[in-house]
Amino acid sequence: MLVGRRAEQAVLEQLLARAQGGDSGVLVVRGEAGIGKSALLQHMRETAVAMGFAVQDAAGVEAEAEFAFAGLHQLCAPFLARAVELPEPQQAALGVAFGLREGAAPDRFLVGLAVLSLLAEDGPLLCVVDDAQWLDQASAQVLAFVARRVGAERVVMVFVLRDPGATDVEAFSGLPELRLAGLGASDAQTLLATAVRAPLDDVVRDRIVAEARGNPLALLELPRGAPAVQFAGGFELPDVVSVPRRIENGFQRRANSLPADARMLLVVAAAEPTGDAALLWRAAAELGIAREAAAPAEAAGLLEFDFRVRFRHPLVRSAVYRAATPTDRRRAHGALAAVTDQQVDPDRRAWHRAQAVVGTDEDAAAELERSAGRARARGGLAAAAAFLKRAAELTPRPAVRAERALEAAHAKHEAGAPEALELLTVAAAGPLDAVAQARLQLLNARIAFHGARGGEGPRMLLDAAKTLAPLDPALSRETYLDALDAAIVTGDRGPGGVRAVADAARAAPAPPESPRPVDLLLDGLVTTFTQGYAAGVPGLRRALDAFNRHERDDHAVNDGDDRRWLWLAGRTAMSVFDDQMVHALAARHVRLAREAGALATLPAALLVQSVMLVLSGDFSRAAEQTAIAAATRTVPVLHGQLILAAWRGRSDETTEVHATMVRDAVGRGGRTEDFLAQYAMAVLHNGLGDYPAALVAATRAFESDELTHSNLAHSELIEAACRSGRPEHATAALDQLSSRALASGTPWGLGLAARSRALVSTGPAAEEYYREAIEQLRNCRVATQLARTHLVYGEWLRRQGRRQGARQQLRTAHQMLSDMGAEAFAARAARELRATGEHPRSRSAQPSDALTAQELTIARLVATGATSREVGAQLFLSPRTIEAHLRSIFRKLSITSRRQLRDLRLP
Fold first, then answer.
1. Which GO biological-process labels does this protein carry (predicted)?
2. CATH of 847-903 given 1.25.40.10, 3.30.1310.20, 1.10.10.10, 1.10.3720.10
3. Which residues contact 15 (CB under 8 A, 6 or more apart)?
4. Which of 74, 75, 79, 146 is nearest to 116 (CA)?
């Protein structure tokens, strides 16, 4: 019975109506246990079926949270027959994830794209994922990613979360939410009347309603479990224990009143998360429990038996399991292990066997270790970590236990779980050999850096690099580079600063006879930070060429190390003002990450590419890259959004993202996040013409090793200082920019330096520098800086009284800036044009102006001849969504075919 949820019903029915009309819908339904989520979703299912929807259910199970992709498999199982129609990479990723085939560990993105393609084939479709807080980590990440990219499918995805969540549900943050509160007094009284047939004294009724706090399950269950005498005197005070706990306690009392065999059968059912009735009966037989034991449990309304075993409510399962004695839990798991087929489901058998052990058991631990290997091969790092953690607990020999704890810590850290430090403590108790001790030290350092982002991280990484030097020279060199990158990122100028780390890295072991790209990058950066920029540029160029050449070299081993270090290589290409190399390395990084579906590296790759696209004036493509990164819910997302919003001149959006970054950085010691935010604010304020504010922000940004390394801060500081009438504040930045430009010798660097010298110069010298800057910047891809050079040159000409020349420069600047979407800078150019007596022309409307950023990206890709499936793979959208966007694109552009799209000159 659904009482008092009319507004919530309307929200869900609107989602269904939208999907029926060809759109998609996503919703997270949150609320405490018993608040009515299940009843509301059952109403939605019934409504969906009546509207012609197919309905597919999945549910997180607490005991199943360690099995990678278990929840996802539940949802996708009915659609797997269609997997043969997917492109081979998606087939392989899905098959390996579900344990149906062998292969390299699939990434969540590729699995997500496969799931998206499967769900998009039928429609309309309602997917309901109940108890999503208990999904395994791999399933939660994939499903959240799919929800953010479901696009124009006739699919509704609803995730049901219990508050407070049993596990981290960060994956679903940011999705539309419907939070269920308790029923109002009138609705609560109506529902209570259905549970208590006898007349109630008004005072007692009001007290029951108050104690239930509007929780529907409490209103139904508390009276059912209470002695009749309590109806006369009321219940205990409402602040004694929380409502969900009271409900759970009521289920426990009901279970404890059953015969012993029925109670034990409940414990076995609670310990077996798949609901497989045949498996349950085999386990019951193993324990000598007859089928008749089920009758009292069913009569008590605790669970029902059919082809599947279903508890009345998830709280029944947890209440039964928690109330069971340790001995009964072990008996239940032991019976389940005994009847689980080792060939069909070896991992679940190993898990049950492990829960049945008292003390230590090497055979059980070894079986778990093998399960961890299988989980890792499927991409289930969280599952592998859980198996290894339990294996370590069961291991009798200290040395083996320490090794397994260390492996578990590595897996926990890779999976982003916080227990890694606890496992390192176990591993440190040892004994460990020298190599293992060094690996422990390295992991400790990485955890410290990623956790605090402070000065301790680089120092600890240096210590680990020194320890590794005689044991593993190659890993030692990589760890020195890790330390150097960490120092650049943290921006700490103290003992853990870049210069100190670079000095220490001079002691790195010699590279092999054929140095890898990573070796050349370490040597180039060490030279740069110890001997100066000019001395380091040749080595940095050799390193960048090696990374770029590595892809084309048939004899090179193109492994995951390239993906890992291309993030730093791309930023280093910016440091030598090599725009072509930045584009090449960023594109390669994104491509490699896509091909491998590397969840950890794709967002960073997209960030570098989107920043370079912004600087190139291609804001629409940058926006699409940022949107893809946003679907991953990872840290670099805000960086890309911030820089794009600032260059677009969108003050409110930039300020909002800036505030979020600064707030998030406080707990992590995120100095570079703050510096990057200051750079973006400097761009915004320079565009708006608020030069004093730009100077404050740019001065702060210039303090960052990261931003001076990538050369982003110099020109903003110089322009802000000069336009504020305080050119003396630009001296250090101008000197450094000029010397770097001369050493790099690229059009980008030389053009920026010439423009900056023009800003601090007067008379003929200034004009010569402006012309030089324009000539240089025309020869590179950094269109934003060329447009801004026309702008500042035009401003200077107007102040010299040379209106005709000023108009020519300002017209060019206004046209370029308007076309790329740099709204604030374009408005600044328009103001200057009006000051010359010329009214700026409105930008000529282009057919593509009607397209959204995503539609423009799709149109460009289709214009190259790419199929809908190929475009979808690039943008992590289903082919059906691409087709829907194409219909919109054709309508907006008044065309009817892909051939016509290829004939258009899209910006």
1. regulation of DNA-templated transcription
2. 1.10.10.10
3. 25, 27, 156, 158
4. 146
**For residue 212, how many other CB atoms are within 10 A of its CB?**
27
Reading the block at residue 519, the tokens are 């070796």
The CATH number fitting domain 6-179, selected from 3.40.1110.10, 3.10.180.10, 3.30.390.50, 3.40.50.300: 3.40.50.300
To the nearest 5 percent, what fractions of the chain are helix, strand and coil? 70, 5, 25
Q: Report the predicted TM-score, pTM, of the whole model to 2 decimal places.
A: 0.72
Q: Are 218 and 196 in contact (CB under 8 A)?
A: no
Q: CA nearest 172: which of 60, 62, 66?
A: 60
Going by their DSSP bridges, the two strands 303-305 and 309-311 should be labelled as antiparallel
pLDDT digit string, tens, across residues 622-660: 887 777 766 665 555 678 888 999 999 999 888 888 877
b/e map of 676-703 (b: 16 or more CB within 10 Å)?
A: bbbbbbbbbbbbbebbebbbbbbbbbbe
- Residue pair 389/419 in contact (Cβ under 8 Å)? The answer is yes
Q: Domains of the chain: which residue ranges? A: 6-179, 251-339, 637-738, 745-843, 847-903
- Report residue 128: phi and psi, to 5°: -115, 120
* Structure-token pair, residue 809: 């420069």
Take residue 593 and report the two structure tokens written for it. 């990450």
Structure confidence by residue, pLDDT tens digits, 52-92: 888 988 888 776 677 778 888 888 888 888 888 888 888 88
Record the tokens describing residue 252, joined without a space.
């426990």
DSSP E strands: which ranges in 306-367?
309-311
Nearest to 586 by CA among 558, 552, 562: 562
Mapped onto helix, strand or coil, the DSSP state of residue 541 is helix
Contact (Cβ atoms closer than 8 angstroms) between residue 107 and residue 15: no
| Alpha-carbon separation of residue 606 from 583, 589, 678 (angstroms) | 11, 8, 21
Residue 742, number of CB atoms within 10 A of its CB: 13
HSE, side-chain direction, 13 A CA sphere, residue 734: 18
Name the maximum alpha-carbon separation found in the chain: 102
The two tokens of residue 681 are 């604010």
The pairing of beta strand 54-59 with beta strand 125-130 = parallel
Query: What is the C-alpha to C-alpha distance for residues 563 and 33, in angstroms, rounded to an integer?
Result: 43
ω into residue 458 within 30 of 0, thus cis? no
Lowest mean pLDDT among 96-110, 267-281, 314-328, 605-619: 96-110
Cβ-contact 45, 29 below 8 angstroms: no
Q: Which fold has domain 745-843?
A: 1.25.40
Q: What is d(CA 463, CA 482) in angstroms, rounded to the nearest whole number?
A: 12
Q: Which of 62-66, 471-475, 533-537, 600-604 has the lowest mean pLDDT?
A: 600-604
Average pLDDT in the chain: 82
